[in-house]
Specification:
This protein is an alpha/beta fold. The chain has one domain: Aldolase class I (TIM Barrel, Alpha-Beta Barrel), CATH 3.20.20.70. The chain contains nine helices and nine strands. The radius of gyration is 16 Å and the shape is globular. The mean pLDDT is about 95. The protein binds 2-keto 3 deoxy 6 phospho gluconate (ELE). InterPro entries: Aldlse_KDPG_KHG, Aldolase_TIM, KDPG/KHG_AS_1, KDPG/KHG_AS_2.
Length: about 210
């Protein structure tokens, strides 16, 4: 996971309501400079949307999100995705992921969950729900005893605070849906979304 995300600082979290949005949305994000995309498996449109993005959007690196069960792992493999992200983890999920050819980033919200994940060999975790679970101060505190662990905080992050996370040495990237505001998506305003992606990719956060 760390290799795959080496050049990535922001992962847009996409929840597709309409299959036909998938390609123009992904193009807007990639053109704006955000190439690594997490498409959550929360909606009926997700699988077909992912298929279309993989077939039609050059340069996109596509992973699945909300990966919670072995069936989600299987679907991620069948779709040909490049990575999987989970908001948490279970023994069953990690057992399935261990057999999969693509990496999983499990989610944690506490130190003990993280230590359990480390027992499975993981060093990179989603920190979810980042803001609600304590945000930047928690990640700073964890860096003391666990300096080698890296995080992708997600949940409640936006233009106003994403840079605070990215300044932390134990944060490799952040994830979030702020680049895809519901009103812009509903109105299919892909140019505006591309602009938001560009602002984000250029680190012009509004402090
Ligand atoms: O679906 C998953 O796998 C999740 O863990 C949840 C998402 O990452 C958050 O819903 C994104 O958070 P927001 O940026 O606050 O919208």
């Amino acid at each position: 996971m760390r290799e795959l995300l080496a050049d990535t600082r922001v992962i847009p979290v996409i929840t597709l309501e309409r299959v036909e949005d998938a390609v123009p949305m992904a193009r807007a994000l990639v053109n704006g400079g955000l190439k690594v995309l997490e498409v959550t498996l929360r909606t009926p449109a997700a699988a077909d949307g992912i298929r279309r993005i993989l077939a039609e959007v050059a340069g996109a690196i596509v992973g699945t999100g909300t990966v919670c069960t072995p069936a989600h792992v299987q679907l991620s493999c069948d779709l040909g995705c490049q990575f999987m992200i989970s908001p948490g983890f279970t023994d069953q999920l990690l057992a399935a992921a261990a057999q999969a050819p693509l990496p999983l980033m499990p989610g944690i919200a506490t130190v003990s969950e993280m230590m359990r994940g480390m027992e499975y060999g993981y060093q990179d975790f989603k920190f979810f729900p980042a803001e609600a679970a304590g945000g930047v101060p928690v990640l700073k505190a964890i860096a003391g005893p666990f300096a080698d662990v890296r995080f992708c905080p997600t949940g409640g992050i936006g233009l106003g605070n994403f840079l605070d996370y990215l300044e932390l040495p134990n944060v490799m990237c952040v994830g979030g849906s702020w680049i895809l505001p519901a009103d812009l998506v509903a109105a299919q305003r892909w140019d505006d979304i591309e602009q938001l992606a560009r602002e984000t990719a250029n680190f012009r956060g509004i402090k």
